Structures are given as C-alpha cells and as structure tokens.
Amino acid sequence: MAKERSEEEQIETGDQAADPAAEVESPSPEEQHAAEEALNEELADESAQDAEIASLHEQLAQHKDMVLRAQAEVQNARRRAQQDVEKAHKFGVEKLLKDLLPVVDNLERALSTIDTEHEAHKAVVEGIELTHKSFIDTLVKYSVEVINPAGEPFDPELHQAMTQVPNGDVEPNTVLDVFQKGYRLNGRLIRPAMVVVSKAP
C-alpha cells in the first residue's frame, strides 16, 4: 500500500517537473505597468539622444558656415589690401604730379611766347627746351602719358571743350587747337586736355 502511494507521488512529482509552465506565474499588473514605464523611459531617452544629435549636427553646420564666412572675409580683406598697395604704387605720385604740371605748362608757354629767331634769345630758348624735355622724359619714366589731341576727334572722356569754332575744312567735333595739354597716370586721367573743337559752318 505504501509502495503504491510512493509510486503515485513519484508520478505526480514527475508530472509537475515535466510541466515547467505550470511553475511560471504571469506578471502582475503592477509589474506590467513598471515594465511599460521602463520601456517608455528608454524610448524617451533614445528620442532625446536623437534630438541632441540632430541639434549638434545643426550647430556643427552653423559653425562650419561661420568658419567659411570668416575665411572668405579674410581673403577679401587680403585682396583689398593688395589692391590698395598696388594703387598706392601706381597712383601715389598723383598729387605731386598735379602740383608739377603747372610748371610744365609755364615752360611750354614760355617757349610759345619767346622770339626764337632773335639771336640773344637762342641760348635761353635752348635751355628752356632742354628743361622741358627733361621734365617730360621724367614724367614718362613714371608712367605719365601726355594728351595732345590736336587734329584728333574730340573725346569727352579725355578732352574738355573750351569753345566750338565753325570750320568747313575738317570734320565736326575735331580738335582744332589745344589750350592746355592733358595727362594720364597709368591709364587714369589726371587732367583733361583743354581744347577748341570744330563744328559745321
């Protein structure tokens, strides 16, 4: 009798061991709620990390843009400085030139008014001519160009018309006479030539 019971107990305990699902208890509502909250917190943390990464990418792009702009500004400043230096080299003597041009004008007026045929004036004329030539050669050496447009078409960018004279022998708007020569420094107009211009009779 005892032997039969023990066999039955063994069968029962064996059945219980063979069915592990019977031992696993289903989670309580509190445990399910806690698990859901933990999952939600984990998802929220991942979402916050994604947002932070996106924000960092945006900040990085902004900083890159700022660096590129700063580099461009530096390059522009360097280019402007180089241009200013080049202009200073090219046109640094402009003010001095403007102050010296009246001296050239006076030498030319002296040559035009003095009697070159008179024997007593020949030495003076020769001296003035040599001084004038030396002056002009020095100006040319420093990239100064003389504008003497007699007989050329009138150019309002280089010439200043003092008066117009009817003349049927030449085309209208032709320079008949030059009151005062003009000058250019490295292509930049320093002083326009003052001229008399023809017009149709």
From TrEMBL:
Biased composition (Acidic residues): 38-49
Signal peptide bounds: none
CDD domains on file: GrpE
Biased composition (Low complexity): 17-29
Keywords, comma-separated and alphabetical: Chaperone, Coiled coil, Cytoplasm, Stress response
Region of interest (Disordered), ranges: 1-50
Superkingdom field: Bacteria
Coiled coil: 53-87
UniProt-listed InterPro entries: GrpE (IPR000740), GrpE_CC (IPR013805), GrpE_head (IPR009012)
Protein location: Cytoplasm
Pfam families in alphabetical order: GrpE (PF01025)
Protein family (similarity comment): Belongs to the GrpE family.
UniProt-listed HAMAP family: GrpE (MF_01151)
Function field: Participates actively in the response to hyperosmotic and heat shock by preventing the aggregation of stress-denatured proteins, in association with DnaK and GrpE. It is the nucleotide exchange factor for DnaK and may function as a thermosensor. Unfolded proteins bind initially to DnaJ; upon interaction with the DnaJ-bound protein, DnaK hydrolyzes its bound ATP, resulting in the formation of a stable complex. GrpE releases ADP from DnaK; ATP binding to DnaK triggers the release of the substrate protein, thus completing the reaction cycle.
Quaternary context: Homodimer.
Identification of the protein by name: Protein GrpE
Name of the gene this protein is made from: grpE
